[in-house]
Amino acid sequence: MTTQATKQLETFDNPRVDRDYTIHISVPEFTCLCPKTGQPDFAVIEIAYVPHLRCVELKSLKLYIWSYRNEGAFHEAVTNRILDDLVQACDPHFMRITAKFNVRGGVYTNVVAEHRNAAWAPPAPVTLP
Q1: Would you say the C-alpha torsion 27, 12, 10, 4 has a positive or negative sign?
Q2: If phi over 0 gives left and psi between -120 and 50 gives alpha, with beta otherwise, what is residue 66?
Q3: How far is residue 61's CA from residue 82's CA, in Å, rounded to a whole number?
Q4: Residue 61: Cβ within 10 Å count
Q5: Closest of 125, 114, 9, 112 to residue 60, by C-alpha
Q6: Per annotation, catalytic residue among 20, 34, 85, 91
Q7: 34 flagged as catalytic
Q8: Per-residue pLDDT tens over the stretch 53-112
Q9: Active-site residue (options: 41, 55, 85, 91)
């Protein structure tokens, strides 16, 4: 049983490549270190994506997120790195990472980063009566 943090993200085949659908993942226990003070930063990482051919495997995502625990990172940099790594691993049609960091020095930080495959067009919204 692997219980070591790793930057290796695993994927699996999208079971419905013929359909656009959204996967929402919430990671409420993200931690990294402040690069200035070394104190821990805590955040909720929310991932929303429309898969193309591959989906991210959740255990590998957990171990990937865990790998940041002892790394110093600015909020903006770590959010964008997570997006880049996930896009590289599963090449989604669309992905949004929202990082909601807990208070540090009286300031809350929310960072939102997005990726959109240029060849993909989202379906038209449906308005129900």
Answers
A1: positive
A2: alpha
A3: 10
A4: 20
A5: 9
A6: 34
A7: yes
A8: 999 999 999 999 999 999 999 999 999 999 999 999 999 999 999 999 999 888 999 999
A9: 41
Distance CA 9, CA 72 (A): 20
Q: In this structure, what token pair is assigned to residue 68?
A: 């940041």
41 is an active site residue: yes
SS3 labels along 75-127: HHHHHHHHHHHHHHHHCCCEEEEEEEEEEECCEEEEEEEEEECCCCCCCCCCC
| Under 8 Å between Cβ of 109 and 90 | no
pTM, two decimals, is: 0.94
The predicted-structure confidence for 2-37, as pLDDT tens digits, reads as follows: 579 999 999 999 999 999 999 999 999 999 999 999
Q: Which residue has the tokens 């490549």?
A: 17
The pLDDT of residue 104: 82
Residue whose tokens read 């919430």: 26
Q: Which residue has the tokens 């909601």?
A: 100
Within 10 angstroms of residue 30's Cβ, the number of other Cβ atoms is 21
Q: Which residues pair with 35 in a beta bridge?
A: none
Q: How confident is the model at residue 44 (pLDDT cuts 50, 70, 90)?
A: very high
